[in-house]
Specification:
GO cellular component, one term (chains A, B): cytoplasm
Radius of gyration of chain A: 18 Å
CATH architecture of chain A: 3-Layer(aba) Sandwich
Function (chains A, B): Catalyzes the ATP-dependent phosphorylation of N-acetyl-L-glutamate.
Mean pLDDT of chain A: 94
Keywords (chains A, B): Amino-acid biosynthesis, Arginine biosynthesis, ATP-binding, Cytoplasm, Kinase, Nucleotide-binding, Transferase
CATH class of chain A: Alpha Beta
Oligomer: homodimer
Largest sheet of chain A: 8 strands, mixed
Low-confidence stretches of chain A: none
CATH topology of chain A: Carbamate kinase
Subcellular location (chains A, B): Cytoplasm
Number of domains of chain A: 1
InterPro entries (chains A, B): AceGlu_kinase-like_sf (IPR036393), AcgluKinase_fam (IPR004662), ArgB (IPR037528), Asp/Glu/Uridylate_kinase (IPR001048)
């Protein structure tokens, strides 16, 4: 059985037209699917209006208790439930979740070494309860995850949405043929960053090594691809990197860049 | 099969000690159960810190779009997910929900007559999808509802938590023997409002009529009891009205005031 795990970020969430377009296409997508969303500017805006300034240590963002409250409100409340209501409108039977719900994603608070990142949750290979998630999927439910997890001891934690999407995809690859889809602002991996038409249609592991050696891939793209190929190594069938407004092409024509073993 | 539908309000939520005590007892409660929670002072405090003043028309509270955003953040995000994380800590397999999730509670935006209440959702006899809820319950999940519903057209709505608890109890009474439990600040229905020991242990429909005629029941309590007996008339087995910190007595000794047909 096939399963899509699709991640959207700020560039979709912050633009209500983009978001509606995406959610309509997501609803139309056949088969098992999971949506993971990040935060976007709304959390930053809310923090500002509450007089909370972003905490940075050595340039790294810190999730202090005030920030955790804000992201829990914005990610798990405002954004998540509005996405669910929109999906229901399109007859997609969504349920909005955090990792705490049904204990689906249990994280560990990041240990304090040089920097105390605060209430940030890291994931391991056993973080996701894929059996319980599969039960939900098979009952016709479409899980919509915000980027909040918990430690199992009553503490909510802020966790990177890309990491959550990848962990879900890897864990569920023991039960499904998983396609992991990252939506971002470009049409895919570009050979020439200034040319939107220079999308690489496919890259396999060997080609990725070659492209890295030849320094063809732009700096910002490298960690994304590295993480994608790690997920593939751990069992995910394929990873797509593409633009949210082309989601209707997924599974039909070519969507973004397809990465595979 | 027995099912508890338990509602808590501000007096539990606003006091973290009360809340933890309650959630521990709730976790220990055997059998099928659903928790419904209201808002409390946190939403008011957040509105203040964001510079949003409560909108009142003719003394009635109005849910404008700004207020809806705040209650969605606070009820469905902050409060709901913290409750879920606490319950998971006590091995209670909670999932935090709004009415939009899995389309479990579909409401109608209150029609504008003399007053435009804004984004307030009213419930009808067909609002709750009891079959889908029952599937969740039977898979071992404990639903935790915040007081947010939707209209099925993509719009979230603010709905009274007492009303949600009652609608859930009535709808599920076709499948379960439902005990509806309202937690409030007193130990139960008091014969003498100034005497906490004057709790009426039981009231049936006939006795309620008599008590009303004799003007024995304090004014503020009357609508609560009226709604409770309406739920009983519609199929709910019994309604308890009592204090959250005595929940451990529920189903064992006498908890609060028991209302029945």
């Amino acid at each position: 059985m096939e399963l899509y795990v699709i991640k959207i970020g700020g560039n979709v969430i912050d633009n209500s037209e983009n978001l509606h377009h995406f959610l309509k296409d997501f609803s139309a997508l056949k088969g098992y699917k999971i949506l993971v969303h990040g935060g976007g500017k709304i959390a930053t805006d809310l923090s500002h209006s509450m007089g909370i300034e972003p905490k940075l240590v050595d340039g790294r963002r810190i999730t202090d208790i005030e920030t955790l409250r804000v992201v829990t409100m914005v990610y798990a409340g405002l954004i998540n439930k509005n996405i669910v209501a929109q999906l229901q409108r399109y007859s997609c039977n969504a349920i909005g979740l955090t990792g705490a719900d049904a204990n689906l994603i249990k994280a560990t608070k990041r240990p304090v070494k040089d920097i105390d990142y605060g209430f940030v949750g890291d994931l391991s290979d056993t973080s996701v309860d894929e059996e319980k998630l599969s039960t939900l999927l098979k009952s016709g439910i479409v899980p919509v995850f915000s980027a909040i997890t918990h430690d199992g001891e009553g503490q909510l934690l802020n966790t990177n949405a890309d990491t959550i999407a990848s962990a879900l995809a890897v864990a569920l690859s023991s039960l499904y043929e998983v396609s992991l889809v990252y939506c971002f602002e470009k049409k895919g991996v570009l050979l020439d960053v200034d040319d939107d038409l220079s999308v690489l249609r496919e890259i396999n592991t060997a080609e990725f090594k070659k492209l890295k050696e030849d320094n063809v891939i732009a700096g910002g793209m490298l960690p994304k691809l590295h993480n994608a190929f790690q997920a593939i190594e751990k069992g995910v069938t394929e990873v797509y990197i593409g633009k949210s407004d082309e989601l209707q092409l997924l599974g039909k024509e070519s969507f973004g860049t397809r990465l595979f073993a």
